[in-house]
Structure to design on (148 residues):
C-alpha cells in the first residue's frame, strides 16, 4: 500500500500502466501520518496526492512547513543520487505507546471536523497549525495534534 516513507512525493502505491503496483508519481497535496503496528508501533509524517490522501491518518492539505519538510527530503535524495552521500533513514515521529497515542489523537482530530479543508485562518491568512505532528524527530522539536 505504501512506497518508501521518506519518498519526496506521494507515498501510496497506485497502479502502473500494466495494472501492476507502482509508486504514485503525482505531486503531494496532503500531509498525514503513516502508522505501522508491527514489529513495534511507529508513525511517520508522510505526503500523498489528491487521489490518495485518504490512505493517510489525519490527512490535511499541505502547509508551508510541510513544503519545507518535503524540500528537505528532496534535497537529501538528490545528495544521495548525485554526490553519493550516505542514506540517512527517516526517523519516526513516535515509537511504541507514544505512536499509538499520536495516531489516536490524529484520528480524533480528523473525526471532529472531517470537512476541514484548511488550517489557514481565513481572516489573517496565518497557519493556525491544527492537525498532525509536522516536524520529524531528527530535525527539530516536535509539535503535537492540536498543540497538546
Amino acid at each position: 500500500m505504501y512506497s518508501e516513507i521518506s519518498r519526496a512525493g506521494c507515498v501510496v502505491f497506485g497502479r502502473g500502466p500494466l495494472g501492476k503496483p507502482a509508486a504514485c508519481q503525482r505531486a503531494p497535496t496532503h500531509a498525514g501520518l503513516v502508522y505501522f503496528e508491527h514489529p513495534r508501533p511507529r508513525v511517520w509524517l508522510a505526503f500523498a496526492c489528491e487521489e490518495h490522501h485518504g490512505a493517510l491518518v489525519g490527512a490535511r492539505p499541505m502547509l508551508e512547513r510541510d513544503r519545507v519538510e518535503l524540500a528537505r527530503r528532496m534535497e537529501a535524495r538528490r545528495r544521495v543520487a548525485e554526490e553519493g552521500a550516505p542514506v540517512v533513514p527517516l526517523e519516526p515521529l513516535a515509537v511504541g505507546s507514544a505512536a499509538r497515542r499520536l495516531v489516536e489523537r490524529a484520528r480524533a482530530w480528523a473525526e471532529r471536523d472531517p470537512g476541514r479543508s484548511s488550517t489557514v485562518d481565513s481572516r489573517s491568512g496565518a497557519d493556525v497549525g491544527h492537525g498532525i505532528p509536522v516536524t520529524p524527530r531528527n530535525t527539530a522539536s516536535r509539535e503535537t495534534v492540536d498543540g497538546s
